[in-house]
Design goal:
Strand order of the largest sheet: 22-23-1-24
Number of domains: 2
Strand content: 25-35%
Number of strands: 24
CATH class of the largest domain: Alpha Beta
Helix content: 25-40%
């Protein structure tokens, strides 16, 4: 339990390592037996789960103080690979496992199997392979190997299936066509393609509706540095913009991370931001209400709600339907929890509408969703009565140092 009260934010924070970048650089290791070195690697739960999976696939991994050395071939394991609550691992690793001949079994938390996973089966069938999902036993079983074929997938639920296919086709050197309908979170596919290109693998991208493997080079980078995480930094930026003044280090302004859009939005609505070569300072400002489309940046929504609550007038957030399929029903839970804490917030025709200007506070349930916990913490900094957050430790899924970092910038909590 954590009780967060109105705060005067002050201090300096380094953005945590990007979870998304860490996951893709770790996946790069399946494409080579040569040693890869990764610095500033995230130690969040989702990254650790992927490291354990790679170890079970035969990779030798020395991980210490946010640095990793990875080498060795991958091979099918006889033991079950645990996925925890990682949606990324659940949608990517069973597809990658189709590069093996034989059966690979994955297990996960019950909550993971409440999320959409059935596209795994559809994709495997098109590749003359098989993936079985047992929702009672909470297992996914991959039967390989896959064979090259032109395939079609639905990208409206998650772009992570496409990431899994891109790695599978790269490993098997499959030059067939991947047709994609209604792709969401396009920026995360850019991130995947960029990671693959660093390994000498290039795909042709036909306006995100079709992808073809172009070529594979055996010459590739072997040393990588993980960028700072714009998704996590969104909470830091918002709390600085609404509750004080802070300096943020470690973010790459040339990054292709989709959630860098938070910086552009804050500038647009009047946030006072001072840029330097290696950092920026953001401080409390008079902000204007906003209308934002989160279709390709759904992870920003939990940070945008406390931002909107701090601003007088009506703000709207569009493109929120896929929040239903996150670690919890993030859409309903965010709206309902903030509503019961006295906020004027509604979902109307698939759009979140927030009438801001004040936030009372109260008791907030996280539903074991890391981004809900961080959203409530930021809102607590502007609350009239404080916010009591249950299961605050769930932030470790993506940002293990969140509460320590909040303490560094004087967030009042106990």
């Amino acid at each position: 339990m954590k009780f967060v009260t109105r705060s005067n934010i002050q201090g300096v924070i380094s953005a945590p390592p990007s979870k998304s970048h860490s996951q893709r650089l770790l996946l790069n290791s399946i494409l080579t037996s040569s040693e890869l070195k990764i610095k500033n690697l995230s130690d969040c739960e989702d990254s650790i789960l992927l490291i354990y999976a790679l170890k079970q696939w035969g990779k030798s991994i020395n991980f210490n103080s946010h640095s990793a050395k990875i080498r060795g071939e991958i091979s099918r394991t006889e033991s079950t690979i645990h996925l925890g609550e990682s949606g990324f691992c659940a949608r990517v690793l069973p597809l990658v496992a189709l590069c093996f001949e034989g059966t690979t079994v994955f297990s996960g938390a019950k909550s993971l199997f409440q999320r959409p996973l059935s596209d795994l089966t559809t994709i495997a069938n098109q590749l003359s392979a098989k993936i079985e999902i047992d929702y009672e036993r909470c297992t996914i079983t991959s039967h390989g190997p896959a064979l090259g074929a032109d395939i079609s997938i639905d990208g409206s639920i998650s772009s992570q299936y496409l990431t899994g296919i891109l790695y599978l086709f790269s490993k098997l050197e499959v030059f067939n066509t991947i047709a994609v309908k209604s792709l969401q979170s396009k920026g995360y596919i850019d991130y995947t393609l960029d990671a693959l290109q660093s390994m000498g693998i290039r795909f042709e991208n036909y306006d995100y509706s079709k992808f073809n493997l172009l070529n594979i080079s055996h010459f590739h980078a072997n040393q990588f540095v993980v960028e700072g995480d714009w998704s996590a930094a969104a909470f830091l930026m918002v709390v600085g913009a609404i509750a004080g003044k802070m300096k943020i280090l470690g973010l790459n302004f040339e990054s292709i991370q989709p959630d860098k859009a938070i910086f552009e939005l804050l500038q647009k609505i009047g946030a006072k931001i001072i840029l330097t070569k290696e950092s920026f300072v953001i401080e409390k400002s008079e902000l204007i209400a906003f209308d934002y489309d989160s279709t390709h940046t759904p992870d920003l929504v939990p940070a945008l709600i406390p931002l909107a609550l701090s601003i007088s007038g009506k703000s709207t957030i569009r493109g929120v339907e896929r929040l239903k399929f996150k670690e919890s029903d993030r859409l309903a839970n965010l709206v309902n929890q903030f509503k019961q804490m006295g906020s004027e917030i509604e979902i109307l025709d698939g759009v979140i509408e927030i009438n801001g200007g004040k936030f009372i506070g109260g008791n907030a349930q996280t539903f074991n969703d890391h981004r809900l916990a961080m959203s409530f913490a930021v809102a607590g900094a502007i609350s009239e009565r404080g916010v009591t957050i249950d299961n605050e430790e769930c932030v470790s899924k993506s940002y293990p140092e969140f509460w320590n970092d909040m303490k560094k910038i004087n967030l009042e909590s106990k």
